[in-house]
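Per reviewer request, we include the raw input and output of the structure prediction for the construct analysed in the revised manuscript.
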Amino acid sequence: MDKNRFFFEHYGLSERDLEHYLAAALSAGGEYADLYFEYLSSTALSLDESMVKSASQGISVGCGIRVVTGERTGYAYTDDLSPGRILHAARTAALIATGPAKTPTVGFQDKADYLAVGRRRNQR
């Protein structure tokens, strides 16, 4: 099996799906977006005095979407690979990257401004 086709073959993804997810990720005005699909299979054995005490096996699967707009980056992840959940994650990442900042950004270009702010805090 071609590792580059794994998600296409096992989860029914198509190139058109990927284009749709990327379009949703860029829908709020993002400049760049990428999709990261992961599949992790793990097995663990616990031994005590050369005897197997427990065994476990698991699979983690998901998709992370990153959107970049200027200096802002939005990221969302879903462990459900249904089209609706991937689209929701793509839109969420888009809004994070392009949404308004919750705190205003203040630049300290002039040392005098910075010192004045410091003095005002100390006077309280």
